[in-house]
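From the shared-data thread, chain only:
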Amino acid sequence: MTKDKYAMVSVRDEGMGVPLQDQAKLFDRFYRVEGQQTQSIAGFGIGLYICKEIISRHNGQIGVESEPGKGSIFWFTLPVA
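Structure, as tokens:
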């Protein structure tokens, strides 16, 4: 989708969702959502941080819309040349 000279890409999942209090920190380096459901999930908490860094260095934005138990929509925008 293109809007105001920006391309927007979004991905929807039907996973566990992200609580509102964690969404603002989700793209921070080494941040991991803690909870019963995430104890067995491996990772270092850098994947979304790396995505944010790449996208922001290309003058884009990244974000998430999520509700626990209902999944998430991760999105990013990049300027259209």
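The two ends are 14 Å apart (CA to CA).
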